[in-house]
Specification:
Helix content: 40-55%
Order of helices and strands: HHEHHEEH
Keywords: DNA-binding, Transcription, Transcription regulation
Distance between the termini: 35 Å
Protein name: DNA-binding transcriptional ArsR family regulator
GO molecular function: DNA binding
Pfam family, one: HTH_5
InterPro entries: ArsR-like_HTH, HTH_ArsR_DNA-bd_dom, HTH_MetalResp_TranReg, WH-like_DNA-bd_sf, WH_DNA-bd_sf
Structural class: alpha+beta
Length: 87
């Protein structure tokens, strides 16, 4: 797996939209794609970038893949950002 920089991953507005939607609760690709003016395969590519950055996780339920926010990825982002406020 090639790890994507989390800041690069969140620089895209479509990915930020996906994260905002997932913050409200786990969703499938189809549920996420319904709110964006891009194709389902494009949504899947954006989700892969977020997965590679460890900002989302995925689990399989039958034939469905359910995506959710991965708290551990945001923990690392927060650690890095907090250094600017703790001095």
């Amino acid at each position: 797996m090639v790890e994507t920089d989390a800041f690069v991953a969140i620089s895209d507005p479509n990915r930020r939209y996906l994260l905002e939607e997932l913050r409200r609760g786990p969703k499938t690709v189809n549920e996420l794609a319904s709110g964006l003016p891009i194709s389902r395969p494009a949504v899947s590519q954006h989700l892969k970038a977020l997965l590679d950055a460890q900002l989302v996780s995925v689990k399989s339920e039958g034939t469905r893949r359910i995506y959710a926010v991965d708290d551990s990825g945001f923990f690392h982002l927060n650690l890095w950002l907090d250094q600017f406020w703790n001095e």
